Amino acid sequence: MRAGVAGALLALLFILTSPAHAGPADVEALDGALARSGRPPAEQAELLLKRGDALARLGFLPRAVDDYRRALDLAAGNDTLARQAHAGLGAALLRQGEREDARRHLDACVSLAQGAGDRAAASAAQVGLGVLHGLSAQPAEARRSFEAALRDADAAGRPAVAARAALNAARVSLDAGDAPAARGWLGQGASRLDKLGEDAEAPLLLVAFARLTARADGRNGDQTVYETLSRAAALAQRLDDRRAESFAWGYLGQLYERAGRAADARTLTDRAVAAAVAARAPESLYLWEWQSARLAAARNEAKAALDAYARAVGTLEEVRGELAGDALQGASVFREAIEPVYLGYAEQLLRQGGDGGGDDQGTLRRARAVMEQLKAAELEDYFKDDCVASLDSRSRPIDRVAERTAAIYPILLPDRAELLVGIGDQIRRVTVPVGRAALTRSVNEFRGFLEKRATHQYMDRAKQLYDWLVRPLEPLLAEARVDTLVIVPDGPLRTIPLAALHDGRDFLVRRYAVSLSPGLTLIDPRPLPRERASALLAGLSVGVQGFPALPQVRDELAKIAEIYPARTLMDGDFLGDGLAAELRRTPYNVVHIASHGEFLGEHRKSFLLTYDGRLTLDRLEALVRLGRFRTDPVEILVLSACRTAAGDDRAALGLAGVAIKAGARSALASLWYVSDEASADLMQAFYRTLRHGDASKAQAVRRAQLALLDNPRFRHPFYWGAFVLIGNWL
Predict the structure, then answer these.
(1) Among 265, 228, 255, which Cα is nearest to 273's?
(2) Domain ranges, ordered by start, for the chain
(3) How far apart are CA 353 and CA 308, in angstroms?
(4) Which CATH number is associated with domain 386-516?
(5) Are 108 and 84 spatial neighbours (Cβ–Cβ below 8 Å)?
(6) What is Dmax (Cα atoms) for the chain?
(7) How far is CA 205 from the centre of its chain?
(8) Cα angle 385-68-18, degrees, rounded to a multiple of 5
(9) Sign of dihedral through CA atoms 518, 519, 520, 521?
């Protein structure tokens, strides 16, 4: 499996050094050359560097990293080869998201290059450092690196590297909201592009220049942009670079699409598709298949649009893990060039379906399946892990697991919300005339008001959201005597507690147990084995690392330990290594962590606080995963003092994704920091119901929330609404 797609989106957004025209045949030839024994170390290192470059170009990053490391070992005493190895290794590690290691190797390359007066090598490494600083939200440092790269590249006579430096600097400036600075950098890029002639890197650099110019000027139809893309296409044809040609024709077709010149757009898009097929470049092909689908839909050619969307999604499925694995692909790439493909296909399918009766069941199931693919793609993109959404073969649709359960699948479209409701074997469809933007505004206001415990400002939004999302479904739910709602939330709906919606008389939690699911399948859904219950409890009651104390945590864990057989790691005993040792030694089926935690839009910045440091989501996943293949894996992961960034629906993916990645069947977590006294009371009620009754996890959460709701001190949903159950609700 490739770890990322080079060229393609990467070349257009963060332009790094990359060997031109590398293909599978080049790798095979180098494989053969390296297989022959008896080569001196320096010659082996040169071959490894060439193969590493080719592998990086093709997106096989782990293999490229291995080759660069081996080349570095063999290059001892040869500074020229060492510089090349450090540069390649730094760039590949950066694309894998390993920023600190990438910085170390890029710095080493710059130091060696400057010592040897090798300004060409120094300039390439400085481009990489500039990209790294840009990704780390350090625009001033990025600018200094790009300025140094530009000076060194000019001095070394490397206009392609100079152009990359200028274009990357323009991108970083645009990301920082500084369009005037970006236009200045683009001017410098243009002067270097003029010196490239028929350099192999020129076509994609020209495409990148055109795209950035359109963004900086806000004029997608500017004549300069058209001329640059046409120039890139012609040059790519002369150089027989079909991948670059596909991007040039495709983006030119996109401009004509936006200008309303449909016939020209179709002609250019067809050329882009043909070039991508010839180049065997699925990372390019899916974009133009999607473009073909949009153009067909605009002509009201329903079948052609559906066929094109099906092809686009099929092609995207081939490479979505590769796109997810490349850390340089930011969230904006997912929002702009991945999510809309799935949403467009689902919307086109829904145009063909009715209200769920009769023959359109198949169409509604297809639409839901497409959205399921989108959920998986989004988790993969968030975690930069192409295996995150892989589920156990024992998974099955959640709307067939339990009676009196409704699976609600909201699909938020620009002009409306489509609610797909699965009860038993039937799917019904309800359309609500509220667009995504309006619903998102209401959701964000609701979330903000809920955290103001001294006011009841939340009520208007609680009623409005109920009217949009639940009231239209009441007849269906009543007919099936539903008592549990399993909701697969879309976008902003992940950031709010749906149990706190209000029908004008009472909260939703009064009538239904509410659980969230990241998708329609679960890992081996089954009730908690109460007879084999064992819990690992960990928490911080004291303030550490600048975070305030949580004095009720000690009492919270003590009361849980009275209910469940438990091992407790408190304060100074709650260490990262100690937690790992416990999970390695004992097959706990409940893991409860009462400590400050932050779930943010970038998963690498999300963490749980331990006494001696911060537990990243990757580390937490690795620890919980230790029990995945035991007889009793972790049934529920409870995080009772965490917070998910308000208004950031990607941040909420961390809650769902860490449980999926780790193999935990469900997670219970708070969306914001709650009074630790209220949290302690809720957790005690939850565990008592779970341990001694026959209620499902979802019903246990509901009863615990109702206990707080009925307590005058904790009636405000600030106290009880923050807690959400994700995953297996049984």
Answers:
(1) 265
(2) 1-218, 281-385, 386-516, 530-727
(3) 18
(4) 3.30.420
(5) no
(6) 83
(7) 27
(8) 75
(9) negative
CA distances for 303 relative to 39, 353, 696, angstroms: 59, 13, 45
Q: Dump pLDDT digits (tens) for 664-674.
A: 788 898 999 98
Other Cβ atoms less than 10 A from the Cβ of 481: the count is 9
Fold of 1-218: 1.25.40
Tell me the CB-side half-sphere exposure of residue 152, using CA atoms within 13 A.
23
- Out of 178-182, 602-606, 692-696, least confident range: 602-606
User: Residue with structure tokens 């479904």?
Assistant: 473
Describe the strand order of the beta sheet including 607-610 as a list of residue ranges. 613-616, 607-610, 597-599, 642-644
Tokens representing 544 are 């550490």
Q: For 49-107, how does the pLDDT look when each residue is reduced to its tens digit (9 = 90+)? A: 998 988 887 777 888 999 999 999 999 889 999 999 999 999 989 888 888 999 999 99
Q: Residue 369: which of 397, 333, 393 has the closest Cα? A: 397
Give yes or no for a contact between 248 and 229, defined as CB atoms under 8 angstroms apart. yes
pLDDT digits (tens, 9 = 90+) for 615-657: 887 788 777 776 555 556 788 999 988 887 677 887 777 777 7
Bridge pairing between strands 666-670 and 607-610:
unpaired
Q: What is the pLDDT of residues 434-451, one digit of tens each?
A: 999 999 999 999 999 999
User: 530-727: which CATH topology?
Assistant: Rossmann fold (3.40.50)
Give the integer Cα–Cα distance in Å for 425 and 421. Answer: 10
CA R_g for the chain: 27
CA geometry: angle at 200 spanning 198 and 204, to 5°?
Answer: 100
**Do residues 462 and 445 make contact, with C-beta atoms less than 8 angstroms apart?**
no
Q: Three-class SS of residue 664?
A: coil
Q: Against a cut of 0.85, is the pTM above it?
A: yes
Say how far residue 666 (Cα) sits from the centre of its chain: 20
What amino acid is encoded at 130 in this protein? Answer: G
In the three-class reduction of DSSP (H, G, I as helix; E, B as strand; rest coil), residue 200 is classed as: coil
Count other C-beta atoms under 10 Å from residue 190's C-beta: 17
Dist CA 719 CA 453 (whole Å): 8
Asked whether the beta carbons of 266 and 273 are under 8 A apart, the reply is no
For residue 66, what are its two tokens? 């291995």
What is residue 479's three-state secondary structure? helix
pLDDT more than 70, % of the chain: 89
Q: Which residues, 6 or more positions from 206, have their beta carbon under 8 angstroms from its beta carbon?
A: 193, 228, 229, 231, 232, 235, 248
CB 703 within 8 A of CB 685: yes
